[in-house]
Design goal:
Length: 249
């Protein structure tokens, strides 16, 4: 950002006030966006921690699911055809909700079940306990998958929001605010220069008036002196109204 980069405005008091107002608004916006970025970063880190924990748990749960499925297949035989025949509609459905974090809408997934258990009679002949254990383990894995999907979606949304917010913060901090500050400094400098020129002009006008007044006074003094000399050298006029004082005998 160059030190001379500024907005092209006419240097006036009105534009100076407008630039100061814009600078104040930019500083306020920078402060708010900085707080928003901090809030999003805090949520981002918490979401990342939850994702790591869920993925760790998910690995153990999936191991348990495959192990319980192998137990069910060993105890109850091949139950895949029974499961496929009874699967006429979805029992577990996903519900979408929105969570507002510093103005960013995060999508949350929650799972809820509808209807009864259509597989409650599966494994009734043999292996009922292992089949029930397999269903419970699979349900737990499904819940973790839905939660992980929700966290992963929020993670991506927060990542994009943080990038956009940080770009705005940097743009205001390193481009807009310095440009406004340079513009304000330029307008103040121009106004000060204009005031100095006006002061110099007024001073020169006053000096000129004083010089003209001094010349005028000097000229009047010279004219007065010449008039006095002329009157002194002139002969006396007997017809003047003045008369000598009377002589008393």
């Amino acid at each position: 950002m160059g030190s001379g980069d500024k907005i092209n405005v006419f240097p006036s008091r009105m534009n100076l006030t407008a630039m100061k107002t814009r600078l104040k608004g930019a500083q306020k916006g920078h402060s708010l966006l900085k707080k928003k970025s901090d809030a999003l970063t805090l949520k981002f880190r918490a979401t990342l921690k939850k994702i790591i924990d869920n993925k760790t748990v998910m690995g153990n749960v999936m191991k348990a699911v495959y192990f319980s499925l192998a137990e069910a297949a060993y105890s109850a035989g091949d139950i895949s055809q029974t499961v496929i025949q009874n699967a006429d509609k979805a029992q577990n459905k996903i519900k979408f909700t929105k969570d507002n974090v510093a103005g960013v809408q995060l999508t949350n997934f929650t799972m809820h079940s509808e209807g009864g258990d259509v597989y409650q009679l599966t494994g009734l002949g043999r292996g009922g306990t292992t089949v029930t254990k397999c269903k419970e383990t699979a349900q737990k894995a499904l819940n973790l998958l839905v939660e992980l999907a929700s966290l992963q979606t929020s993670f991506i949304t927060l990542d994009e929001a943080i990038k956009v917010t940080n770009r705005r913060v940097n743009g205001i901090e390193y481009v807009i605010i310095p440009r406004l500050e340079n513009t304000i400094a330029y307008v103040i400098e121009e106004l000060d220069e204009r005031d100095r020129e006006e002061f110099y002009r007024l001073k020169k006008v006053q000096d000129k008036k004083k010089e003209m007044k001094a010349k005028k006074e000097k000229l009047l003094e010279e004219l007065a002196g010449r008039e006095a000399i002329k009157n002194a050298d002139a002969p006396m006029n007997i017809l003047e109204t003045e008369h000598d004082p009377d002589i008393m005998f």
